[in-house]
Amino acid sequence: MPKPLLELICPAGSLPALKSAIDHGADGVYLGLKDNTNARNFSGLNFDAKALAEGIRYAHARNRKVLMALNTFPQPATLKRWQQAVDTAASAGLDAIILADPGLMAYAQKHHPQLRLHLSVQGSATNYEAINFYHEHFGIQRAVVPRVLSLQQVENVVRHTPVEIELFGFGGLCVMVEGRCLLSSYACGDSPNTFGACSPGHAVRWQQTPKGMETRLNGVLIDRYADHEKAGYPTLCKGRFEVQGETYYALEEPTSLNTLEMLPDMHRLGIAAIKIEGRQRSPAYVAQVTQVWRAAIDAVKRNPQGFKAQPAWLAQLDKVSEGSMHTLGAYYRPWK
């Protein structure tokens, strides 16, 4: 299978989303099983055995890749489930699995040495020494770099590792060090690291009050919206809180990462793949975002020096961005 530089890797939360990504130009998709072995463990998402087989058949028939995220952390009593997920990935014919836990990497390497391994962003490897450790000990061939590095820091990583580097290009922006968020666990007892979901649906409540629409996570007030405001999904990191008498987005505004204008730099650095976030989003979202990024990546490959992010592309992406806003995130600013 060909390995073009700057692959476009798109989210597939369902079989329709997978087909939508493939049909609109993704080089590969990433997906998860219907359990807490992946970090998008939401009701109605992910793949059972039948859908997985159909998705792989559909993608491979069109010479595209299917990657599986196994990027939560098994607990002692449930380790077998995660190991079985590795077995499932190997027997299904997936192109790679995306892992965060070193124990699972060792298991995969021992029992399925032919299986390609990627280091998940949940592994929180923010420097080349950490990435090279996973490469030397477990044969990791690609690493998804956390969204906490500047582009200069990414360049330093690329220069000092033989591992392919994959960067997030577009989608929801988490403000914590990837893979170690405990905010959701603090509020409702379910950690993204083990349960597989930040702000799980069973803990979310919406209530219309005389003061506005209130959203709560296990009783914790996350936000209150005026009638003219569009309510977002209640996550603690993007809630509005009162701090020293002022109510505002104290941690991060609801906004999406969008690195379209940085594509020439990513091309120059030899970035292996651009990842689009959003397995919880609809097939229509996947189609819209994939189409724009396919056009942009093709354009930068044709003429890196002359590339310019088209206003129409940015307008299309802003339509599906959180809060209709976008940011370059940590790529352009020091992380606090």
TrEMBL record:
Q: Which InterPro entries match?
A: Peptidase_U32 (IPR001539), RNA/ubiquinone_mod_enzymes (IPR051454), UbiU (IPR043692)
Source organism, top-level taxon = Bacteria
State what protein this is by name.
Ubiquinone biosynthesis protein UbiU
Q: Which organism is it from?
A: Thiothrix winogradskyi
Pathway assignment: Cofactor biosynthesis; ubiquinone biosynthesis
* Residues noted as binding [4Fe-4S] cluster in the record, renumbered to the chain: C174, C181, C198, C237
Q: How does it assemble?
A: Forms a heterodimer with UbiV.
Q: Which family does it belong to?
A: Belongs to the peptidase U32 family. UbiU subfamily.
- Name the UniProt key words of this record, in alphabetical order: 4Fe-4S, Iron, Iron-sulfur, Metal-binding, Ubiquinone biosynthesis
